[in-house]
Amino acid sequence: MKTIFNLLLLGALFMVGCGGPKSIIETVPVSLSSTELQTGYVYALPQTTFKVTVEVVKTRTIRGPYYRFAEKYLSIREVPDRNITSWRIDRIHLESVEEADPERMYLVKQISGQQDLSTLLKLSHQGLVYDFNVGKYLETKKYHESPSERYEGPVYTDLTNKRNIVLSIDTSYKSIKMDSTFIKVPVTKKQLIVKTIDEKAEEAARVILKIRNRRVKVLTGRGDIPVSDMGIQKLDELEEEYLTLFIGKKIEEKKRYTYYFTPSAGEVFEHEELFEFSENRGIISQHLDDSEVVSLTVRRQREVEGLNNYGLGDQLPMQTNALYYRVPDQAEVNVSIGEDILMMERVSIYQYGVILSMPVSLVGK
Fold this sequence. Notes:
The chain has two domains: 22-154 and 252-362, no CATH class; 165-247, no CATH class. Helices cover 19% and strands 45% of the residues. The chain contains five helices and 13 strands. It is rod-shaped, with a radius of gyration of 40 Å.
């Protein structure tokens, strides 16, 4: 029985010896400047870059041409008496962008045998590695400004429904001597006079009061001519347009800014000042007395530190039949102005995570 077992063992060893060469691959850390990039399959570990989009709104308050008569004719007080420009932050959007980490690139070499290296793409699809052969390192700007949405057109429309020029007739008397007596002869003088701003304001105020009176009659059923809902809406719009001549008008323009920030591997807390913001001047590049700093803060949560049981430091060794991959960690990200938080999110950051190795035989399983 022992003899038969020995024969079977020798037969198995012979069959192994007669088989093809064992498949061996090596995973070697490389850099962007390496001359070996074209000698095998290159992949990189992913890293996370934040794309912060800030939308600000510029509001121009333009005083009405009849602002001085708002209280006199319409009993409206505290209307804007000067042109004012103000800014506000309308929206902040945080987007995580995955890109290849240029500091964590690896070359996979086939040393012997045959190994289908395309299976590495399965890890790429899962987000564990970044296929450097498909997507190169993403060069991003730290700051980008988009064209603003400017208002084009007249600020106020001339709504006058009567002539701006009136005919003035003045009668004077001229003394004429006839015989020995003087008589007064009337002399008529006609001239065109431009209306004063006070007269124009009074005329506009009368139109507003007529519109209000007409609307009240329609809504209470006392109107002679029925008016549809669309007609009432047009009356409202016309009244609002006339009112702007007294209370002023606000014009808004939107502007979008984009900032990029890449967290550093190994950090626990990072604070990045994005820009200075002033309610009077908007986003500025330098500090002013009325400006505040808008900053991005990232706090690592340290939820995957327990996975780092391989003791892999900054200088990773060559791996045989194994691949490096990266597991992201969670972080709390907020954007604040001064002490006020404008936006807070919880996101995954690859470079805050840990680097592990996986046998090639497990790839895709």
